[in-house]
Amino acid sequence: MKPIEHLRPLLKSFLEKGPAGCACSVYHQNEQIFEDYVGYADPETKKPITPDTIYRIYSMTKVVTCVAALTLYERGLFLLEDPLEEYLAEFKNPQVYREGENGEILVTPAAKSIRVKDLFTMTSGLTYGGDANETERQVKKAMNLLESEGTFSVRALSKALANIPLAFDPGTQWRYSLSHDVLGAFIEVVSGKSFGQFLQEEIFQPLSMEDTFFKIPADKKERLSSLYDWKEPGNLQKNDKMDAEFQPGTLFESGGGGLLSTLNDYSRFAHMLANRGTLDGERILGAKTVELMSMNHLQPEQIPTYNWDHLKGYGYGLGVRVMMNPSLAGSNSSIGEFGWMGMAGTWVMIDPKEQLSAVYMHQLLPNFETYTQPRLRNVIYGAL
């Protein structure tokens, strides 16, 4: 692979558009071929982005959660087609909100149970909190209630969500949701360990990911990058309203968005997947399981609801986008390239075919993902 000469100026150009600082790492065939840190973790104090900088990776947690669950799958502890209620009893006899003939909201039994696979593939009928439909409104209320009562566990969240009728019959649509948070509760029940402990023992310790955790230790707080709200070019406002769950003493370990990590730690995790499940002699997943994770699992009836513009050309696997049609995506990447992104602008790309992985980090809301991520992808593949 030739040097990625266009990546360094690209990172610098991102700073003109949005983030105060950013970092990127690329591995190819077990060799790190690019690493750069640009700008500030905190411009007010002139604290630079460095290899030690810790980031909120938000939804890139989802990839870790799905890998963790698949390690249990490989031990024969569940099947993807199993009804979820066999493990989380609260999901027995699910209900669904439906619209009546006159626009009224009805609650009727779901056509079938949620399968474990529906949690992986975001086809469970669960949602995030919001205002688009009655399920979202009730989820928002439930989350507000849990937060008002103090710190809560992922199991408490699962039980609260199970009491809310679903947005659609399981398996019929794709909807981005709290499914991977429920998958965290599922991991606790199947493994008999807390979610955080399971991740520590099965993924973080074997891969030497010493700076990846749900709660930031007191001696590492200074290394956490500041998070910013973008107002206009050159006008960033520090956002410190969203860090409560990262503090020691809180119980919630969000499988959908709760991890903190560094560029190096997450790069090791990503390259383990690019190596078909192994890194430095440590096997986390079998090669065939990585293949299963990174193939499209959406059925024709589910595809129309998987409609984010910047994911054109991608399908969805077990917790990851999966490249299916490079021409539709306008992408020079491989068929089968996969990964995900985080709410504050973090991004991972994994390609076992080329034994290639890339991780990018910045901390900004809105995250400019539709601008930065396809450009990063195209520049990296352009060097192959």
Short description:
The protein is of the alpha+beta class and 384 residues long.
Give a written overview of the molecule:
The model has no long low-confidence stretch (mean pLDDT 96). The strands form five sheets. The chain has an eight-stranded antiparallel sheet, with helices on both faces. With 384 residues, the chain is an alpha+beta fold. The protein contains eleven helices and 17 strands. 46% of the residues are buried. The radius of gyration is 20 Å and the shape is globular. It folds into two domains: 243 residues, DD-peptidase/beta-lactamase superfamily (Beta-lactamase, 3-Layer(aba) Sandwich), CATH 3.40.710; 121 residues, no CATH class.
Shape: globular
pLDDT below 50 for ≥5 consecutive residues: which ranges? Answer: none
> Cα-atom Rg, whole angstroms?
20 Å
Q: What is the subunit arrangement here?
A: single chain
